[in-house]
Amino acid sequence: MNLIIQSPSSIAEEAIAHLVQLSGATSSQRVSDTVYRLPGARNNEQAVADYCAQARLDFGYVEAGRRLADFGLVVMDMDSTLITIECIDEIADMLGIRTQVAEVTAAAMRGEIEFAESLRRRVALLAGLDQSALQRVYDERLRFSPGAETMLAALRRHNVKTLLVSGGFTFFTDRLKTRLQLDYTASNTLEIVDGKLTGKVLGKIVDAQGKADWLQRVRDELGLRREQVIAIGDGANDLKMLAEAGTSIAYHAKPVVRAVTTYAFNYVGLDGLIGLYE
């Protein structure tokens, strides 16, 4: 196994030397200022994890020779994963009820409220809002997570397909599909009548099981094995989706997610995916 060490900033040589000793790696290879590969790592995984947490480094054990081109599909959550915001919280801010809605969002992300129920509750609070508020959120507040565009460009170079699957809204996923050249998107549709949000969601809600179903659907359509799929998410609503992927990544995630994924990116951006497989 290769032990991959990553950081959003330059990594001290002393830290790498200590990790070589801790892990029993045969050497260290500098991939860049922010990424090191330690081949032959085999010892003290818990000690490595503890040291990396103390030093604010991300780490991952990756099979030697594994490359990004070996995968066929990357599935991503949208809010707080591909983008930095929770769209529904920003929409609520337009009505002056951000705190009220954000509290429900946070509880759902922690797994304390069933997602579909939490979404219905939150959307109901948006009734009467002019649909122009959605465009304002998109134009004024939506930002990509660090490394998102770099990661997506690398996936395109290696012919890896992308699926953005979200408990959020088609207003945003449709625009991101075009803007970022994504291959597939799936999310929820807000009902709008006479230019106003009605407080309802149309059709079946894309919840935790819905996300997993979409992953399976696209994986099967592409004729891929489970081992060829990577999933990235941050909240409890992503757990079923993450469990369906051969490789799962918790991105700046809640503890309930970090506990069950293959890798956790606590410090680096989404381009940490490239670092794992360079």
Describe the model.
The protein has helices spanning 13-23, 45-55, 87-93, 98-109, 115-124, 132-140, 148-157, 170-180, 208-222, 239-243, 255-258, 272-277; strands at 2-6, 29-32, 35-39, 58-62, 73-76, 161-169, 184-193, 196-202, 229-233, 247-251, 263-265. Helix 1 (13-23) packs antiparallel against helix 2. The strands form two sheets. Strands 8-7-6-5-9-10-11 form a seven-stranded mixed β-sheet, sandwiched between helices. Strands 2-3-1-4 form a four-stranded antiparallel β-sheet. The chain is α/β, with parallel strands linked by helices and 278 residues long. The radius of gyration is 20 Å and the shape is elongated.
Biggest sheet strand order reads 8-7-6-5-9-10-11
Radius of gyration, CA atoms, in whole angstroms: 20 Å
Count of beta strands: 11
SS strand fraction: 15-25%
What's the order of the H and E elements? EHEEHEEHHHHHEHEEHEHEHEH
The helix content is: 25-40%
Main sheet?
7 strands, mixed
Return the average pLDDT rounded to an integer: 95
Distance between the termini: 14 Å
Helix vs. strand class = alpha/beta
Number of helices: 12
**Backbone shape:** elongated
Indicate the low-confidence ranges by residue numbers.
none
